[in-house]
Amino acid sequence: QVQLVESGGGLVQPGGSLSLSCAASGSIFSIPSMGWYRQAPGKQRELVATITSGGSTNYADSVKGRFAISRDNAKNTVYLQMNSLKPEDTAVYYCHALHREVVNTGWIDDEYWGQGTQVTVSS
Question: What does the alpha-carbon distance between residue 121 and residue 15 come to, in Å, rounded to a whole number?
């Protein structure tokens, strides 16, 4: 089992910045990908950004140029720096990890989610 513990978030004015972090712990073999998703009230959960263990990143178009995802593989921790925040960024942000365990027949992938942290952008 892998546990994801998020920190950060809160209330910020439009144009402000916030940072999130998420640390994975437990029985970790490898985590090929970590990322952030968000869910606003009445909307489906959507991808914000992901990063592989090799450092390749992927961003939603709506956050490109404003958000930056990074990762510390030694600490199994992923970060999200959010700049130039807009009211439409308001949502619960969830950390996601794809855990991979190599077994004799190949590998086993499992997905894990954090508990979510609220980000509110409002004046």
Answer: 9
State the DSSP string of 2-36.
Answer: EEEEEEE-EEE-TT--EEEEEEEEES-SEEEEEEE
How far is residue 40's CA from residue 103's CA, in Å, rounded to a whole number?
A: 38
Alpha-carbon distance of 123 to 118, in angstroms, equals 16
Tell me the β-bridge partners of 118: 92
Q: By C-alpha distance, which of 3, 9, 5, 39 is closest to 22?
A: 5
Give, as one character, the DSSP assignment of residue 74: G
18-26 vs 77-82, strand pairing mode: antiparallel
DSSP 8-state code for residue 120? E
Q: Please, which residues have CB within 8 angstroms of residue 64's CB and are 6 or more apart in sequence?
A: none
**What is the SS3 assignment for 75?**
helix
Burial class of residue 68 (count of CB atoms within 10 Å of its CB; 0-12, 13-18, 19+): middle
Per residue in 10-69, pLDDT (tens digit) is: 999 999 999 999 999 998 889 999 999 999 999 999 999 999 999 999 999 999 999 999
- What are the φ and ψ backbone dihedral angles of 13, each rounded to 5 degrees? -80, 155
